[in-house]
Amino acid sequence: MQGPALTMMRRGVRVDLLARDEETKQLDADLARYEYLFNRITTEGWGTPTNWQSQPQLMRLFYDVMRIEPVLVYDKLKRERRPAVNIEALEKLHSDPRAQHLVDLIMEMRRVKRLRNVLNTGLDPDGRLRCSYQVAGTMTGRWSSNDSAFHTGCVPADAEVLTPTGWKAISTIRSGDLVMQWDKGIMSFAPAEPFETYYNGKLYHCITEQVRQTLTADHRVPFFDSKKNFTEAAARTVAQRAVAYLPLAGNFVGGNVRYPRLLAALMADGSKESSGWRIAFKKQRKIERFLSLITECGIPYTEQKAKVGYRRFYIPGFLDWPKTWGAWVLNMHPQSLADLVDESKHWNGHIQGNSFLFFSTDKVQVDWFCIAAHCCGYSTTWRHALPSEQSFATNASECYTVNVKPRNFAAVQRKHWTTEDYTGKVYCVSVPSTYFLIRFNGTHISVTGNTNLQNITDRARRIIIPDPGNVFVQMDLAQAESRMVAAISGDPAYREACASGDLHTTVCRMVWPDIGWPSNPADWKDFAENTKYYRHFSYRDMAKRAGHASNYGGSPHVLAMHLK
Hints:
The protein is of the alpha+beta class.
């Protein structure tokens, strides 16, 4: 399926600019009318002027002023149920007569604003609109679409992506290469589809102590807002925000390694021999910590003779343990990796409050240590060590310092963004989660993505025009997915249900047999289609939603989401 999808992404579509401008003006008028009605109801009816785009103000209106019982929604970040006014909460609020009309207005204003943003999506230099189709699709299995993953949403050639063998320039990635993707904090390797194109426009530079990013104007930037809600926007939009918290790391889903803290000690101060490990210490704090770790692990060891002032230990076996940082860190469970990174501060580091400095004389070791840290929730930046820091590590002329912080996001403000005109090639990769780990300047690691484009509605489709000599054909077969699933599955009952007439109505009669069905079968479809189940959804709508969710392999959780 990726072949046709990539062809469509590359080709794009023409846009009727006049029709787009007319539609935008109509949407502006619609939004102004809805806002007038909303403001009049909240001000004159309830005595509390309310900004419909402000969640705190909406919660105050519904839950304090109108005294409606709060709708609680599970907050994944804080792991608790909290009052909310998101789409799920609004659908439940709609059942209260006091809130019904206001909820309808809010939902319609959100829809209009979303559609207006779609129409304002930037075109590529050739005047065409391009989308990135994610073949992995949504939770229901359908394709989902984003703004151009390749043209307006790209990065320069010197950006790097993480592969199983380390960092590689994004310009060298080939189709099917594995790239580290980021999915709401969980990281894994996934096959990527690369692309390159010519770009003539603004580059947006974001520079802070922890972040270095260079993006085209419409490149999608994932971030957390001031209330720690996860969202995304184009680079040009994020650059105008007062503050945005950009993700820097996640938890990699890998394998496991035993005794990670003891491993950190051996990597720092041990030497691997033919039959085991030898390690010697002079500092009392290191001696005490080593004995504590090896006793906790229950690993046998012997103490050997050492020169005055030192204590020397021998640990037989464990020859499969590595001495240096490398690709093996990608085969560790997140907690083991976190223990390993955290323990390194006691052996090759210097503790500074909640953060610490890690020292190394090997740039390759620095790169893999930073990868390990970002794969278990830490953030890092590295630089050449200062003269005052040499004593913490070694007297070698070439020494590197890694600043390690126990948080996986960084605050970015308007003042951190600058722009420059750019003409030249830009690159991107497309992964199923639409977000991936990226490194700029060889030093700063963060998460980035591609620009989002919502589905285009029927009302807006007239702005899309065919190329000369071509026409658009919109084909729609009733219950096409269900008929295909029935044919492929070979289920006789499913096939019979599809052949009997309107499948969704048949499902309605099976699930809700006692809702007053007409005696004439010819009237059943109209009855199911015009009898409300909740809000604006009819009984037939609910059967259709359930059918789509199950046809596309939806889990019980997905079915529950669609059926409320």
